[in-house]
Every structure is written in structure tokens, then in C-alpha cells.
Write a structure and sequence with these properties.
Blueprint (H helix, E strand, L loop, with lengths): L3 H11 L5 E3 L8 H13 L3 E13 L1 H9 L2 H11 L4 E2 H8 L1 H13 L3 E4 L2 E4 L7 H12 L5 H9 L3 E13 L16 H6 L26 H15 L3 E2 L6 E3 H4 L39 H12 L14 H5 L1 E3 L4 H11 L6 E10 L11 E12 L3 H13 L6 E8 L2 E11 L4 E11 L1 H7 L5 E9 L1 H7 L15 H6 L6
Parallel strand pairs: 7-10
Antiparallel strand pairs: 1-6, 2-6, 3-5, 4-5, 8-9, 10-11, 11-15, 12-13, 13-14, 14-15
Helix pairs in contact: 3-7, 4-6, 5-6, 12-16
The structure holds phenylalanine.
């Protein structure tokens, strides 16, 4: 056989009327190959074509046998007719075959074609019409049957199968020919010099071609959502905090935040302690390198004895515990550091950060030992809890969360504290979306912030909204070694 496109052209040229070419015309090629050959001919305008999808009825092997020799019941009837004084039932299988005897006998009785007399079968109808065979003949020649019920019945009897047949209705195109002319793809210097360009056929440009996929980098979904959060923060006048300190001392991570040294959050379950080195130098001023002696003793005093109107926790505060190195458990360690700096020149300020924090938790479908925390703090004179609630409503509305509920909660460093719940329309329920509060005077006044200055803070995870946005139910598909790069590359940008 010549190649497929040429074969198609020749078939069309020799056809008396324009053919409906079914893939059956090329039993060795599948319809996809036929289609791609037709597409290439159509792109050269040699043909036009349309695809015709049809369901056709096809006879099973058993049905083909019935068309040839008659139905099982007709065979039984004929065998009975042939015997002069009836056919012994025990002989039937020998005459018509075991399978025809089994199916055909019952049907022939039902139709009233035969009857029983002792151990013999007798003829009961003067003549019969083999309807099954007739129907199958119709299907054999037309590939369907005018009566739907008959067709359904034959399908049930496993005599007919429905098959999908793809056909192509082909017409000659404006540039029809039986030969495929090689098309030039480029106008070269040689073609110009020789003058051959005048007689050559050029391949038209395919402006619809998709082009090779460009190999490019892609932002991880978490980074896309982070980008959206940063936009919201910048739009609301926030300044980004420097969060490049994954390792902190207990001082910044806990003590400055008025977290007592025996607090459960500090124990070995939640905190990763650094083993080498284990201890930090005493805290210093980032700019001058001077030890923070006064702040250090304020923190000690407020824990141990109480200060600034607070009773304190009344326990022996240990410097060693405060100097232990930890992987930061929250970015609030950075907020504390920023607020301490702000205390040198107190004024209204808005800070945010989005970065990693680490917690020694059991890893499961929704928890990793590290995650990203989105955190914001607002410092101003005379702020109230109402301001915090109002701000949260504005902030979360920008993420598309309009219904909020607040529930009293506990943080060692904030009073009052509130958990924030948002109504998730997709999930149809209230989900916890953040934690917030007003920082305690024990924390702020120890830094040297003036009494009238209040500071709001709140935090949430970046993973939670990202998982909801990208419909990821297992966090390990989002972060870690199980992440599918295809997932990272193909996910759409996010807009809240
Ligand atoms: N640090 C808190 C957390 O880990 C979040 C928070 C920040 C709460 C600031 C109140 C104020 O969830």
C-alpha cells in the first residue's frame, strides 16, 4: 500500500461518487492515523472533510451462525419435522447440537411450534417464520434495525453489539491532486538565485500552531498566595519585617513575649532546640552591639517579681533558659524585636512578615514540622479591641472572607486574645483562620514603649488559605519531597 495520504487521494480520485470513508477502509490503521492524514491533506487544501460519528449494530459470532443456519428454535422445529413419528428428546442434542438443543427447545415450546408426547417431541405448527433470523439479516445488511425494541432484545440476548464507528465524509478541495507536492518551508537564497521560487509551492504559515512549550520557572503556590498577602499589606500601609533569623534565643522567642519559662509551649514537645551550639550570647543591640542590659533586667523582673502594675509569674527566672537557642516557633519573635526598636522612637507603625516557623509536632495530612506564618502588628496610641476587630474585618475582606466571628482565646503575650473564624462558603462551615490579640503591658512597657501606646497583633498560616485555594487536602502534596512539579508549574495565579 502506498502511504496513507496518497492512498486516500487515490481512493477519492477513483471513486464514482464521493466516498464516506470509514476507518474500515483501512483495517490496519486506526482512526487517529486516518484523521491526522486527513488533517495534513486538508491543511494543503487538497481535500475538505467532516467527521461522522455513528453507533452501529454488529452481529456476534453466534448471531452470524443464526443468519447462516437459522435460529436454535427453528433448528429444533426442523429436526422435529424431519422425524416421521416424533423425535426422541434424548436424540435432540445429537441432531441439532447441544447448545441449540438447550436454548431452542424451550423457545420452540413457547412459540407453540412443538409439543411433547411422552418422551418424544412432535410438530405443533404447520409452518413457522424464523423471526430472529430475519431480524439479524436486516441488521447484517443495514447495521441497525427500524424497531428499537427488537434491537434492545437482541442486545440482551447477546446476539448484537453496538459499536462506535467513526467515518469521514471527504470532498475534493480546491487544490485536489493525486500527487502530494513537496512544499517549501523557507524562501532561501538558493531559491531566489536560481529563480526556482517562481514554480515552487510554499507551505502556508500556520498561525494557529501552539508552539513548543517554553521551559520556564514557576512560582510555588505558597509563594503566589504570599505575593497576594504582601500586596494586601502594602496596600494597607504596612512595612515588611526582616525575617531572616530562623534561629532565635529563647529570649526573643519567649521571654520578651512574657511566656513563662515553664510554659508547655516551650517544652520539648513543641520547640526544636539547637544542640550545637546550645546557648546564645546575651542579647545585644543590633545596631551598636551594646548588651541590652536594661531590657534584659526588665524582662527578668516582670517575670520574676512583676512590674508595670503586673504581679508577674513569681518564679525564679533563669538566664540560661533565656539564652537557649531554638528554631523560632513563631514570627512573633521578630515582631518583639521590631517593637523593641520602635520603643526608642515611639510612633504609630504597621509591620508585617510572612516566613517560616518550626514546631516539633507529629507530621500528618494537615501538619508539618514547619509552616509559614503570616503576621501583622499595628502600634498606635489609644487603640482599642474594637479597632482590632474592625481592622480584621477590613483585612480579611480583602481576601474574600466577609463573615468573621471572634472567640476569646489565650496567648501569654496578649490580653484580650481572640481566635478568628471565617465562614467558608465552599466548605459550608466556620473555619479557624487566625489568632490575634492586644500585646500585654508586661511585654510593651518592658521594652520602653509609652503606656498609652497599644499594639495589636495577629497571625495565621499561609498553608491554610493556600490549601483551600488550590483544593489540596494533604499538606505533603504542597510542601516537601512529595510535591509534584507539574502541580507547581500548571497552577493558576491567585487573586483573592
Ligand atoms: N504567635 C501567634 C501564633 O503563633 C500569632 C499571634 C501573633 C497572636 C501576634 C497574637 C498576636 O499563632
Amino acid at each position: 500500500m502506498s502511504d496513507l495520504p496518497t492512498h486516500i487521494l487515490e481512493t477519492i480520485a477513483s471513486a464514482a461518487s464521493l466516498p464516506l470513508l470509514s476507518s474500515k477502509a483501512f483495517p490496519t490503521v486506526d482512526s487517529l492515523h486516518v484523521k491526522s492524514a486527513l488533517d495534513s491533506l486538508a491543511s494543503r487544501e487538497m481535500i475538505t472533510y467532516e467527521t461522522v460519528d455513528k453507533e452501529e449494530a454488529e452481529l456476534t459470532d453466534e448471531a452470524a451462525g443464526i443468519v447462516k443456519d437459522g435460529s436454535h428454535e427453528a433448528k429444533v422445529y426442523e429436526a422435529v419435522c424431519m422425524s416421521l413419528d416424533g423425535l426422541k428428546i434424548s436424540e435432540l442434542a445429537k441432531v441439532v447440537g447441544a447448545s441449540s438443543a438447550k436454548v431452542g427447545q424451550g423457545k420452540a415450546f413457547k412459540e407453540g411450534w412443538i409439543k411433547k408426547d411422552g418422551d418424544r417431541l412432535l410438530k405443533a405448527a404447520p409452518s413457522i417464520k424464523d423471526v430472529t433470523r430475519e431480524n439479524l439479516r436486516i441488521i447484517q445488511s443495514t447495521r441497525t434495525h427500524p424497531d428499537g425494541a427488537t434491537l434492545t432484545d437482541l442486545k440482551k440476548r447477546k446476539l448484537v453489539n453496538m459499536v462506535k464507528r467513526i467515518s469521514f465524509k471527504i470532498n475534493k478541495g480546491p487544490k485536489f491532486a493525486t500527487q502530494i507536492i513537496k512544499e517549501e518551508t523557507d524562501l532561501t537564497a538558493e531559491l531566489l538565485a536560481s529563480g526556482d521560487w517562481k514554480s515552487k509551492t510554499f507551505k502556508p504559515y500556520n498561525f494557529k500552531a501552539l508552539g513548543a512549550p517554553a521551559n520556564s520557572g514557576a512560582l510555588h503556590p505558597l509563594m503566589k498566595v504570599r505575593h497576594e498577602f504582601r500586596q494586601i499589606f502594602f496596600e494597607m500601609g504596612f512595612e515588611e519585617m526582616p525575617t531572616n533569623r530562623f534561629v532565635e534565643s529563647g529570649f526573643w522567642n519567649f521571654d520578651t513575649l512574657f511566656v513563662p519559662q515553664q510554659h508547655p509551649a516551650r517544652d520539648l514537645q513543641d520547640t526544636f532546640y539547637i544542640s550545637d551550639p546550645t546557648i546564645a550570647d546575651p542579647p545585644r543591640d543590633d545596631a551598636t552591639g551594646e548588651p541590652l542590659t536594661e531590657y534584659w533586667s526588665n524582662v527578668r523582673e516582670v517575670h520574676e517579681k512583676g512590674k508595670y502594675g503586673s504581679l508577674g509569674y513569681r518564679y525564679p527566672w533563669k538566664a540560661d533558659e533565656s539564652l537557649r537557642l531554638v528554631l523560632r516557633t513563631h514570627t512573633t519573635a521578630i515582631s518583639a524585636n521590631m517593637l523593641y526598636k520602635l520603643a526608642k522612637n515611639p510612633k504609630a507603625a504597621k509591620y508585617f512578615s510572612i516566613d517560616r516557623v518550626f514546631r516539633n509536632e507529629t507530621v500528618d495530612a494537615t501538619h508539618l514540622a514547619e509552616f509559614h506564618q503570616v503576621e501583622g502588628v499595628i502600634a498606635d496610641y489609644n487603640l482599642t479591641l474594637g479597632d482590632l476587630i474592625g481592622f480584621m474585618q477590613t483585612f480579611f475582606a480583602k481576601m474574600g472572607v466577609h463573615d468573621l466571628r471572634f472567640k476569646p482565646a489565650y496567648n501569654p503575650y496578649t490580653e484580650p486574645s481572640m481566635e478568628i473564624f471565617g465562614y467558608h462558603k465552599g466548605l459550608g462551615k466556620w473555619v479557624e483562620i487566625g489568632n490575634s490579640g492586644m500585646f500585654r503591658p508586661e511585654m510593651l512597657e518592658a521594652m520602653g514603649l509609652p503606656k498609652g501606646m497599644k499594639v495589636h497583633g495577629w497571625g495565621l498560616s499561609l498553608e491554610r488559605p493556600t490549601m483551600i485555594r488550590y483544593a489540596v487536602s494533604n499538606i505533603r502534596e504542597l510542601l516537601g519531597h512529595k510535591v509534584d512539579l507539574g502541580f507547581v508549574k500548571t497552577n493558576a495565579a491567585v487573586r483573592f
